[in-house]
Amino acid sequence: MPGLPPTHDAFICVALPGLAISGEPGQLAGRGLDGFYRGGRRLLSRCQVRVAGREPLPVQARMTGADSARFVGTLRVSPVAGPDPDVVVERARNADGTERITFRNVGLRPLRLPVEVALGTDLAELGAIASGAAGPELTATVHDSGLRWATADAAACVTADPPPSDALASAGLLRWEAELPPGETVTVELRIRPAGAGTLRPAGQAATSPLAAAQAAGDDPRVAPLLHTAIADLHALLLRDPAHPSDTYLAAGAPWRCGMAPADALAAARMALPLGTRLAAGTLRSLARTQLTGPGPGAGMIPGPRRDAGPHLPPSCTGTEATLLFPVLLAEARRWGLPEQETRELLPAAEHCLTWLRTATGDGTYLADPYPAGPARCETQAHAHRAALLGADLLEAFGRPGATELRQWAQNLRTAFRADFWIEDRGGGRPAAALAADGRPVPHLAATTVHLLDTGLLGAGRPAPGLLDKARTEHLARLLGTPAMDTGWGLRGLGTKEAGHNPFGHRTGAVRVQESALAVAGLAVAGYEKEAGGLLRGLLGAAEHFGHRLPEMFAGEQRSAGSAPLPHPAACRPAATAAAAVVLVLTALAGIRPDVPARTVALRPLRSAPLGELSLAGLRVAGAPFAVRISRLGLAMVEEAADGLRLGS
Question: In this entry, which stretches build a coiled coil (predicted)?
């Protein structure tokens, strides 16, 4: 089977369920992923512009937004024009299925331009394209002011404004004759639609957004475009729950994962809480509807697919992660300002998740993943421990039973974990990646250990206790800062000294942005500012090379003077967790820890101020705008907040 078509050099315009993908020249040549898509189906795979029988020479391509791109080319049409171009061709492409092609005469003589656009499609599903099973181009028919293609189960059409002077269906050609005086322009607009469908209305472009339009400014000029791009990407990846359109959630990423991925949707909504709680609420409601019910060992789980975990461990279950993330997101969304009534309505689903956790562990201590016969993974125990503590906090707040039992189980897990999951060695030891079914520790050092630092937010801005004690947390912080783990751009998925390390392996050495961001935030909370600041600066450096649009992962090659991070050819970009990670790391600098039920917010900024002065405005706490400024001395000042919200210690 052929490999996935590469995405690292593609221009991907996203406004789900719409996509538009091409290479840098801008022509859709019908190869690889080229095309306009709607709901995972390619409506148009070929759109080639020719003027006087020749293709424009590409001179510039750039993204103009998460959902749009601009391509510029030139031509020398007049035989007496000399070496200079006399025609500029500009293509403005949008993920909603429109393309405006503008021809401009920059010469001194009037031009008569024969223009043709060659169109074609296979109407293939994205999955078939990824597996190399897309079929041949279909034969078009003339339709309205353009062309139409159809199969037994799908149809698409392209209409042109102005209508072409000639349409040749057998060759998929639309033709115009343009009279163009010096300095004048003529524009052709193409509209690509499923046959019978109306204008695309992406969830991210609704009149009211679940995400606040936050802004960043400061000494480091990279923070403003980084946050702007991240929020634009989050908007582009928003989807509506088909049965409940008022509820929105994030698709995992484009182009490969344009649907619901429960663990990623919950993780991204959690990292994006500083932009408001509406995304969290929509995600939680949508996933509560999928929760398994009835008798059996799966009752209470949020279903999710298996995920490759590299050569040392079998695939993990993203459903386990999602089930443990659900009560955590609900508890923390309440701290950020999710209304009590909405929290109460979602509480039964969170209780079912917590009941599943206690049922799955039974009389034992560790949670197997996949349940019931998989290994006890380090990160799964971290997820379970956090879910128990934050879940207990949530149950107690609403007078529900079970909090005491959850806290006792979490205490037992801490005791056992500290005895069983630490591997002593000459370097001071390390956390085990997992315990095999026979209790044998799996010793490789992986970025999944960062989940031990992500303990969660309790009341009064207190972090929940972690599975590691203070001394071992300090040692883990040092391990994460070594060259074996830190590339200088972010954390490797697997240390360079470990068997099976591969800098391009998505679980065996590539830098996964979400894990690096969790490390920054977790290290900051634990007080290891040097390591947190180093990883933060590395991520910002990588983002600059990626045009401030971080992919979900990139190669774990070591940074050196004059180098740049290597793209991963199969990475989603944009990706929900990568975009939301930007929100997490920037707000981690300010140490914003709200407790809206208690009407307080604590600020515990990084005293080292690794980016100098930083201002964050347009965030949301308690449903109201929140702005904070961190000085070069690492002091934080609230500049805007909800009425009655007190600054805690």
Answer: none
